[in-house]
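During the no-cost extension, the postdoctoral fellow (Dr. R.K.) reprocessed legacy sequence entries with the updated structure-token encoder. One reprocessed record is reproduced below for audit purposes.
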Amino acid sequence: MTGGASGLLLLMERHLRRLRACGGQYDGTTRHSAELERAVGDYSAFVTDTRHHDAWAELERATPPGFGDLVGELRVVSARCASLMEKYRALRLLAGDPATAGYFANVESGIEAEFGAFGLTSSSSVLLVGSGAFPMTPLLIGGRTGARVVGLDIDEEAVVLGRRVVAALGPGLDIRLEREPAQESAFTAGASHVIFSSTVSVKYEILRAIHARTGDDVVVAMRYGDRFKSLFNYPREEVDSAMWTLAEQVLRPEHVFDVALYVKATHR
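Re-encoded structure tokens follow.
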């Protein structure tokens, strides 16, 4: 293994230790938000740095001992830290501080182009799986298009904070946040568009589960990260070709996640 690959492994281990330490400090206040924001900001810059791609490809070929476990743990810990970042941002906003961290700017900058040729309109009904404590996507979609948006999350604290953020930033928007699975939500059947957060570990299981409940013309935007970006996202998986068809991919090297667009297999 070359020095570049060995050096990348050391960087990955260093980021894991830092993220794990910062993520373990959350206590429901913003006391430790600055450290976490710096750690996640540095990590998002790391996973979008194309200079690491050759070393990553070598690691994938060599698969040194512990490599798979390290990748898996980084994915889990960074997803938790991203969730905590949203809680910190929500708490600061509700305390009167609307400052935006660089990580959020990176995410927000890609939302408009996310659906490619399957654009949103005021008549769209959008379901977001994994809405988080600071529901950026519902607020941006609702504010720019007037579409009806329902966000789902299994984290009760995130839903409570998210509702307060929506009340503060989008009181006139048709946005609702709920703590329930997508496969049990009544809204799923009427959704024209479904968005999956890249950090939802079981997103492809949910995609399979909602197939029978969604309309024939539904469009699904699956946020994901493959290869080096899989350090901060759950990767794309193969789908049952009898259920879903990959219609388009929106690849954005400068963003922390890419997007796979799916339609029902009967509507290719």
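The mean pLDDT is 91. The beta strands are 125-129, 148-152, 175-178, 193-196, 219-224, 244-250, 258-264. The remaining legacy entries will be reprocessed before the final report is submitted.
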